[in-house]
Structure formats: C-alpha cells, structure tokens
Amino acid sequence: MINIFFSEVTSANRYDVFLPYAWGLLRNYCDDRIENPEQLNWVTPFFRPESIGSALNRISIEPHIFGFSCYIWNWRFQVELARKVKNKFPKCLIVFGGPQVPKNDLDFFTKYPFVDLLVHGEGEKSFFDIIKSYKSDKDWSQVLGISFQVDGRRVDTEPKQRIDLSVIEKGPYQKEYFKEIISRLKDEKVFWNAILESNRGCPYGCLFCDWGSATKSKINSYRTEVILREVEYLAIQNVNVIGVSDANFGLFERDIEIAKHVTALKSQYNAPKYFMPQMSKGWGAHNEAVAQILNDSDLTIGITLSLQSWNEKTLAAIKRKNVSQDQYSTVAKMAKLKNIPIYTELILGLPEESYSSYLSNLNKILLNQVDELRVYPLTMLPNADLSDKSCREKYKLKTQMIPFNNVISEQELIEEMMEVVIENSTFSEAEMQMAWVFTFMAQSFFTAHWLRYISIYLNREHSISYLDFYGVFLKLNDHQFPIVTKIIELFFKLSRSFKVWDFYKVDGKSIYLSPVGLASLHIEENREFFYLEIKKIVELQFGIELLDDLLLFQNHCLVSSGFDVNAGVSYSYEYDWVAYFEKTEKLKKERISISYSDQYFGINKLKFARNNRHDWLKKIVGLNYSYLSLHHQKKFRVIF
Ligand code: B12
Ligand code: SF4
Q1: Which residues partner with 156 through β-bridges?
Q2: 303 CA to middle of ligand 2, Å?
Q3: Whose CA is nearest to atom 6 of ligand 2?
Q4: pLDDT at 405
Q5: Contacts of 529 (CB under 8 A, 6+ apart)
Q6: Tens digit of pLDDT for each residue in 600-620?
Q7: 10-24, 25-39, 272-286, 292-306: range with lowest mean pLDDT
Q8: What number of CA atoms fall less than 13 Å from residue 210's CA on the CB side?
Q9: Distance of CA 76 to the CA centre of its chain
Q10: Which atom of ligand 1 is nearest to the CA of 95?
Q11: What pLDDT score was predicted for residue 390?
Q12: Closest C-alpha to 514, from 610, 373, 380, 382
C-alpha cells in the first residue's frame, strides 16, 4: 500500500474555507487511469490553516509520497512542513507542484535539499507518472515536466503535452472522497467554497502574470455537461461560493448556459450564494448576457472589468490587451442602467507607469463611477516573465518583501511574504506612497461611499475632479479638522508600512481590517462631526456652500451601527437626490422621502447586532473588501 499525503493549505481564514481542488484534480486523474488503485491510500489532505506542529502530529501513518501544492500564500508553510516531514520520514518522496514552484531557479535543490521532485505546470500527468514510477523502478527521468537531482546534478525532463480536458468524464467534487470532507465542514458550520475550472489556459501573456506567462496557450475546455454536473453537486451540498478559475469567463457562448444553470440551481437549492468568474478581458459578445444573468439572480457582487492600467506605454510594456476607454465607459453605462455593480482592478507599480499616469487611471475609473476598486501592489511571481533579471534591470524595479495580507497570520502561524515593487524607473518610492494614499482615499471616500455623492455633486456642478477634492485633505490643519486629518495620517502610515490589512482591537475584540475598514470605523465613531468638517473644507477650499440636505442624504445612505433591522428607517429631503444621482437628472427641488429596509448585509448576507461596532465592522466591512456593503441596498422612494 502506498500512502499518499498532500498539503494544499488554501488562502482562507478559519471560517471561510476553499476545498483542496488541485488535490482533487490530481487524484481524479490518477484514479481513472492507474492499475490496481486499491494499492493507493489517499490520505485526506491538509487544507485548513494550522501550525506545523499540529499538521505533523496528525501524520499517524508513514507517508510514502507527500505532495505539496505551492502558492504564493502558503509557500513558507509548505517549505517548513516539507522540511519537517523529510526529517521525520527520510524515505518519504517530497513532491512540490503548483504555480509557486520556480521553473528556472538553478539553486533550488541547494536551498531546499529535502525536496525530491519539482513538477512544473499542469500536475495531472506528471503526478500520475510519478506514482506509476514509484510503484516500479523510481526512475524519474521518464516523467515529463519535472526537475530533480541525481548525485548533486539537476535534471530537467522535457516539457509535457497538456492533457485533454474534454476526455474527463466526471469532475472530482462528485467523488466519494470530497463527500467526507464536505460533510465535516458542514458539521462545523463553516462557509466552504469551491474553485471550479471550465477551461484552462489564457491566450494573453501579461508580463506580470504567473498564469499567462506560464500557460499562454490555446484554451482547453471540459465538456459542458461535466461542468454542469459539478456545479449541481456543489449546489446540492450547499456550497457558499463557487470561484471560477477560468482566465476569461464569458468568452464562449456556452458560458451563458453555465450561468443559467447556476441560476436555476440557486433558486432550487439556495446555493451557491455567489458564482464568481473573472470576465474575459476584451469585453466579448457573451459577457453582457452572463453579467445580466448572474446579477439578476444575485449570484454576483458585480462584474469585473480588470484594467491593471490604462496607460498606453504600460500596456505595451506588460503586453496586455484591455478594454478600450470607450468600451469601458459603454460597459459602465450599461451596467448602471441595468443596476449591475462593476468592479475594477489596478496594479500599482507596473513598468512605464508614473505618478501622474496612475492618478489619471484612478480619476478615469472614478469618473465611470465604479462600485468597487481593488488595487494590488505589483507582485513578483517566480514564473512570470517580469521576474526575470532582464526585466528587473530594464525597468529598474526596486522590490521589498512584505508580509502577506493574509488572515492566516493571526493564529501564530508562519507569516507568508511576497516580493512587491516599491519603485521603478518611472515611479519613485515617495510617489508610490502618495499614490497609495490617493488609492485609500478613492476606496474609502468614493467606492465605500463615505463621500461618494458629495464628490459626484462637486464634479457635476462645479467641475471639481474627484482627486482634486480629496487632494485638499492632504493640506489640512489638524486642529481645525481633526477627523479628516486623522484618517489621512492613518493612510500615510499604512502606505509606508505595507502591512496594509491588519488586526485591530475594537471594543476589546480583535478584528481584521483594511484601510477602508479603519477609515470607516473612525468615521462611524464621529459621523456628524465628519460631515461638518467636510462642509467646512468645501467652503474654505472651494468657496462652495454645500446644501445640508445633500450632507444628510450622503450621511444617511451609509448603514449606521445603530440601524434597526426590524424597524428600518425613513428620511425626508428637500431635493430629489435619487433622481439626481441614480438617473443623472437635473437637480430638482422636490420633496422626497426615502425608506431603508435592508435585512442582510455584507458579502455573506448576515445580520449585525445593533449598536455593536465590532459586529457592524465584522459583518459589513470586516474580513471582506468593502464591496457594496456599507451603504443601504434596499431603498424605497416616495415623491410628495
Ligand atoms: C482561485 C484563485 C484565488 C483564490 C484563492 C483560492 C484558494 N484555493 O485559496 C483567491 C481569490 C482568494 C485568490 C487570491 C489571490 N491570488 Co489567486 N488565483 C486563483 C486562481 C484563479 C485559481 C487557482 C486554482 O485553484 N486553479 C485551479 C487549480 C487546480 O490549478 P492550479 O492551482 O494551477 O493547479 C494545477 C497545477 O499548478 C498543478 N499543481 C498544483 N498543486 C500541485 C501539487 C502537486 C504535488 C503537483 C504534482 C501538482 C500541483 O496541478 C494542478 C492541476 O493541473 C489562479 C489562476 C488560475 N487560473 O490558476 C490565481 C492565482 C493562483 N492567484 C495568484 C495570486 C497572485 C493571488 C493573490 C496574491 C493576488 C493578490 N495580489 O492579492 C491573492 C492572494 C490571496 C491571499 N490573501 O491569500 C497567482 C498565484 C501565483 C503564485 N505563484 O502562487 C495565480 C496563479 C494567478 C496569477 N495571476 O498569476 N486567488
Ligand atoms: S492577467 Fe489574466 S489575461 Fe493576463 S495573462 Fe494572466 S490570466 Fe491571462
């Protein structure tokens, strides 16, 4: 009997778990093909965050093959666990696979002598051949797509052919082995999520992307019925979120069928709560239909319009094809009309990006009134072309290892690190810090809504750009404006430390917060005074007297920690702000009343305990991004 162990610790916290999909795919492939499968004992993999000691203690039989699924978010953990396993079980074959396994690090085996085999790229065929070889002569030279050492000399075998996904009859989730894992998670009442791929590969080859650089290739798809059955099984089991790992969902017409199927399942089983694909980069013919279907059934938190940058020089340098600015605006307008939220991603620190081009990206995005904006530091992934020495030199990339923004770290586990760009040939370190401050302001004040309506009003009525408005916050006197200056001070601190998400004590309990979360906490504690300060700032800096009616409308649209879910709340206004902001009509002096009656909040649609700031933060902002959760969603307007 061969005992096969596997570690695929996923990016998650204790309450929000991803099933070990890579393990499932490898096992599925091997089970279907291997002779005498009863000789293999696949031990339930490690996939939840835990300490090395605890993981080691749970190894109760001798491991013969130990697979490690390596990602940027678990690398240090995997290395340490592998080291200890090899120490304790010297005969165990340690196999590293996954995107964090470097292809070209020639010193790898010197640094990590306890690793026996490195598998590059797709794992199914290689892992199958490794097991087959383990059962016979242990001659790894016949296994394609791997690296190993013989007498201190590194051997790289020939790259392998990609497997044909269309011949796979049944996905792993429906197999017996996942049933046991799922039923244990259900007993624990954790939110459990599944990754699902309907296809593999990406025709683009963005310089910074591990995936694109690695697989730039023809798209290889599963048969539609295989996907539909997997989704159905997960829905019956009450999965929380299905994350689609395709690089370009919406590229194929059948994606509409998949989206419709998930919708039908949701109405039957009330699961999944969310179905989250990354939309195809060029906004294709089917994206709109897919977005509409998913939005109508409340399966999405918005459609993704990933940009990374809008600067032509940057796009050329990173070899990225984007939606054009015109196309972006058209999609944003369509989304607004259909009430579909849009969210956009940018990367800060890309080659040829400068402070002014980055701020211009930010401003254009806000002008399109996005609902969610995520900005990532440019991260150096080992297999992305950008990590090559030549690129580092060409763009004068200065990098720093920073702690990973990962919820795992609270539990005294190994802190994961990532290498990020803090300066390049066109963007100085000081400018990059300032760019982060503007980013936090855009996220907190615009997308998280704290000043969204005031910003739009100033832009529409007085042509004040969003960033010009927020820019004045940088020059304020802290005696006169203590609340706003405190927030800005906080943003500066975060931009310098790079430990952006962190744990904070709120009312005696620890909570994991983003910059938006921290700013929100501070504003919530001083709401009335915050808006008074804003009124004064606008008056002093721009000579404009903001209507109190607008300040009230702005303030009320954000869910307060005192909001009574059972009673709801109603407010009256002198002006029809809803027509002005939502229908972009002219401002009319017309009395309206608005009632807010939300019952559930945040991405997990939870209720929060009234007048409990900790719970308010946790449910509304907390572990997730701000998304659309800070402002009231259920609104009813009456015109008098
Ligand atoms: C789902 C996903 C996530 C999920 C996390 C899911 C989880 N399980 O925890 C979420 C949305 C949270 C996420 C976040 C991030 N992600 Co992500 N994510 C993905 C995505 C889309 C799918 C991953 C997946 O499950 N694929 C399906 C599996 C089966 O494929 P696979 O993982 O490649 O596995 C195959 C092979 O690698 C191999 N293999 C894998 N393990 C093993 C083990 C052995 C022993 C063997 C032999 C083979 C083998 O065989 C498998 C089958 O062929 C990938 C892109 C992609 N399409 O792969 C990016 C990707 C993994 N993410 C990436 C990154 C950078 C991130 C972020 C850091 C982004 C950011 N800047 O914040 C964050 C980090 C989050 C955090 N705080 O931890 C990079 C990772 C690069 C790296 N070196 O690890 C990827 C590759 C995308 C990219 N642009 O390059 N991500
Ligand atoms: S960033 Fe997206 S589009 Fe670009 S190569 Fe990676 S997966 Fe493909």
Answers
A1: 147
A2: 17
A3: 212
A4: 63
A5: 483
A6: 887 667 788 899 988 888 888
A7: 10-24
A8: 18
A9: 20
A10: 45
A11: 96
A12: 373
